[in-house]
């Protein structure tokens, strides 16, 4: 039995993705689901698990129709979905009465339920959020009966979002536990329990790779692995600036690094290192590919203490440096020297 486990599709979300991509991003979330469906067909997947937060908000009826249409392209794959905290089954939720195609199974129940898929001899256990939060651990931790493959589908696992005892969970005799809610993909128990992570990163904090979990249960043994699949990633990029760099040089260095990392990705840039004390960067101009969502300048002005001391023999700056210049680089005294000179030089620059 081959399965693909995805989670946190957040359809309907509008992730910030830089000037270049923000507009297309909502549609890309849908395209990714479409690509997963093609993948299911190519790899002859038996079961597609969707571990909650299918939609970013209460789904509209037309959105459910769109999704059901995409699922109609599946050739042999069953789909099992649950609602998470974002798309919980509100009183008037369209989820309640929606008629999915026969191979699409939405577990609407707020209590743990069992869905039997006879033709692939697999049971999927799960529940859907009926409210924005689930404060209590709702799991009974009873072992499923061994009448086929048993899979547990859950959304949450942290305070206010279905807190569960993960160790206890992993010790139960499920063949696989498919988790959603945490956007970072994480295998919590080898070949047993995993967060698929958001299929596509949804905001700038969803850094790193995103995709799905592929799994296979064969002779009562489960094997899983994470597969990278997202169209774009949020990439943290630390750029070391050299004291001899001009602003244009820094800009070129940054462009090079972004091209290496792929211009399709979205960047969170931090400039570090030392710059000339009177160097000025027009940070906005550094966003050449319009794919930077954050740029932080943590560079520090460089001071040649000896030179400054000699030029300031007769004033407080010179005297201050003289006091501390023999200290070891990296020591507390050195830090005091740097901070002191920086404060004095900044004051002087501002007065000039
Ligand atoms: Mn969630």
UniProtKB/TrEMBL annotation:
Q: Which SUPFAM superfamilies match?
A: Metallo-dependent phosphatases (SSF56300)
Record-annotated Calcineurin-like phosphoesterase domain positions: 1-185
Q: Which organism is it from?
A: Aequitasia blattaphilus
Which Pfam family is an annotated match for this chain, by its short name? Metallophos
Q: Which domain of life is it from?
A: Bacteria
Alphabetical UniProt keywords? Exonuclease, Hydrolase, Nuclease
Its lineage reads: Bacteria, Bacillati, Bacillota, Clostridia, Lachnospirales
Gene Ontology molecular function terms on file: exonuclease activity
Protein name per the record:
Exonuclease SbcCD subunit D
**Signal sequence range:** none
Record-linked PANTHER family: COMPONENT OF ATP-DEPENDENT DSDNA EXONUCLEASE
> Keyword Transmembrane helix: yes or no?
no
């Amino acid at each position: 039995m081959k399965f693909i486990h995805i989670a946190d599709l957040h359809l309907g979300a509008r992730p910030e993705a830089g000037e270049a991509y923000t507009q297309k991003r909502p549609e890309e979330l849908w395209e990714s689901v479409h690509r997963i469906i093609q993948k299911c067909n190519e790899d002859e997947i038996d079961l597609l698990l969707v571990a909650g937060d299918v939609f970013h908000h209460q789904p509209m009826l037309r959105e459910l129709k769109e999704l059901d249409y995409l699922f109609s392209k599946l050739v042999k794959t069953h789909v099992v979905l649950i609602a998470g905290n974002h798309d919980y089954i509100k009183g008037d939720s369209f989820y309640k009465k929606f008629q999915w195609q026969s191979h699409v199974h939405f577990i609407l129940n707020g209590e743990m339920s069992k869905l039997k898929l006879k033709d692939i001899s697999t049971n999927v256990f799960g529940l859907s959020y009926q409210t924005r939060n689930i404060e209590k651990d709702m799991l009974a931790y009873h072992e499923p009966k061994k009448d086929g493959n048993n899979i547990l589908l859950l959304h949450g696992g942290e305070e206010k979002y279905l807190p569960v005892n993960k160790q206890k969970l992993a010790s139960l005799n499920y063949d696989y536990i498919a988790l959603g809610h945490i956007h970072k993909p994480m295998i919590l128990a080898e070949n047993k329990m995993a967060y698929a992570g958001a299929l596509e990163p949804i905001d700038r904090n969803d850094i790193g790779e995103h995709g799905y979990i592929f799994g296979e249960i064969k002779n009562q043994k489960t094997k899983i692995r994470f597969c990278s699949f997202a169209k774009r990633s949020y990439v943290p990029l630390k750029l070391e600036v050299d004291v001899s760099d001009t602003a244009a040089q820094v800009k070129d260095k940054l462009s090079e690094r972004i091209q290496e990392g792929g211009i399709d990705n979205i960047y969170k840039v931090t400039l570090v290192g030392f710059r000339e004390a009177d160097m000025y960067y027009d940070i906005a101009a550094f966003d050449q590919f319009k794919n930077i969502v954050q740029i932080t300048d943590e560079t520090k002005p460089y001071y040649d203490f000896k030179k400054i001391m000699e030029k300031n023999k007769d004033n407080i700056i010179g005297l201050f440096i003289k006091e501390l210049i023999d200290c070891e680089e990296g020591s507390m005294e050195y830090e005091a020297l740097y901070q002191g000179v920086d404060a004095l030089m900044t004051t002087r620059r501002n007065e000039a």
